[in-house]
Amino acid sequence: MKIPLLGVIKCALYSVLLLLSAVVNASDGASLKAEALTVLSDLKLAEARSQSQMPTIALYIANRDDRFAIQSVKLSVDGRETARYSYSELEAQTLLDGGLHLLSKLALPKENHTISVKFAVTEVGAGPHAERLYPRFEKTISITENTQWELELIRGGWMKWQDKVAIQLHDRGPENSVSSGDSHPSFRSIYFDAKRHFSFDALADAMVMIKSGVSAGQFSEQVKLALSRSARDLGLADIPVSLRGLVELDRLSEESKPSSMFSHFNTGAALIQQGKYAEGVALLAVLSEGELLAADELLLRDKVNLALGYHFLKQGDSEQSVNYFSQVRRLSPYANKALVGLGWALLSPRQSQAAPLVASDDHASQAIATATPYLWSGSEDEIAWARRHTPFRRAWAVASGGKEEDLQAAMVPWMELVNRDPLDPAVQEGLLILPYVMSHWAGQAQRAERYYVAASERLQAALQSLRGASADIQHGGLRAAIDLADQRGRSGWDIWLSALYDDKDAYLDLLLDSADFHDALSEYRQLVRIRNLLDTYQADALVVMDGGGLDAKPKALLPRLTASIARQAALLDREALAEIDRHHRRTEMYLAEANFALARNHENTRRKLSGVVWDGEMMR
What we know:
Layout: H1 5-49, E1 56-63, E2 68-77, E3 80-86, H2 89-96, E4 101-107, E5 113-123, E6 132-133, E7 136-141, E8 147-156, E9 164-171, H3 185-195, H4 199-211, H5 221-234, H6 260-273, H7 277-289, H8 295-315, H9 318-326, H10 335-347, H11 361-370, H12 402-418, H13 425-438, H14 445-474, H15 477-486, H16 495-504, H17 508-512, H18 515-539, H19 552-619
Parallel strand pairs: 1-8
Antiparallel strand pairs: 1-4, 2-3, 2-5, 5-6, 5-7, 8-9
Helix pairs in contact: 1-4, 1-18, 1-19, 3-4, 3-5, 4-5, 6-7, 7-8, 8-9, 8-10, 9-10, 10-12, 10-13, 12-13, 13-14, 13-19, 14-19, 15-16, 18-19
């Protein structure tokens, strides 16, 4: 079918307009963030200089005991809980690195008050069921002026060697006594916020300090680097004047380069795609066996093992394939794809040595020209590769003898797979694999029929879930849940995700796997947080300056922020709906394949029944 030229031109123009719109929105968002930084820092500075009717205590949490990590903290004043916070692994590590968490600012009448703090502490690296310690601190005070307290976890017990901890109080004096970028609470609090990706908060507080007379030279290099990362995370193109010399995006150029592990992975993958199998596999094998610590490198190792598993499966070396598939962690995002391949590797013919990996250039060229891509990219289109290139290339093939034993072994990972989320492409593939192999297993035709029926029912249920997800997104349910979960803010963990899972578990994982949705979500949450911060300062009427002139700035900025949030919300919904639609189309294809297999089986049965009837009529 020919597509009219006018239609092509319209599609091209529409694509260009969408691209330009995205660029304009990104530029507008960065400009708004820079303007909001200036406005919020002015508001915070005015608040700090205003005369408070009551003295305040700024309470910071610290940890210098490298044996233990703080999991949570609870603050009570005069027996009543005032603040509570749970620390993520990143935040707990940042405390150990010297960061400070501003837990609360208490404005207290000039009378006696009892302040009580309780930590929940566990050993660094301990598992979820490890023993916890609960050090306490309590003090009766009466303050007459503003001050800053640092409550620090330290080693306790006799001679400091016993396996105990305690909380020590450091009175750091008023906020305006800035002397060193290495120890003052304000610097260390900025570092904590920057490291935990409260980028806007960290940069705004840094601007307040600069406007208060602190020079950029008083900030440590550690804090400067963290602030530069924050500016990058916010997407700031033009750094506000007050942050120049403190924030330098150029210092991140080395950081933006991929690590040696990622570079080696890309090189190894390219070599395999070029037909230089021995060199590529050797490079990836080194990555598979190396010692790794970082979470992203552990994920890359899983991807390496997945790629090697499918490479050796396609080469016919099932022993090597089983080895690499088995190394993919069972809780990894790549685990389901590995289970698909592991079953086929267990079913494939055994081979004691790898297939020849070094061959002539002619052989390599031929392999590239005729074979499917050798690097397992994880794309959904490739998940069904093995089922379409299996030992059962003929419809009448039946497993028997040793092959039947292999099939029994292959069923183990596949049975584990099909009990997982039916919206996952690999699980959907598994739903079809089971009845497919059953139909080639002597005496298992009825089980194959039942598995096809079960697959059809689960895929229909998956389609229903996806339709419900689409309706929920269109009616604003996803964004409402995100906003509600973000308002809680009593934990450094992404608890908002847990809240979303309460009623979005049918589709949240699918969305979070999309890079485009993830980027849209991050931008949306940033803009909403900025608006909420400005809203808070305006609503509390904390600033009276220049006859109220300063208060006009957030009033003028907030409508523009609200409009930008609306545009970003629309983009977030579009990305979510596009991802749901993509999964819907794929699920429909799997359902059609299951129903076709059922129809084919029913047709065979009908033919047999017709033959019986015909034979009976002939005998009369």
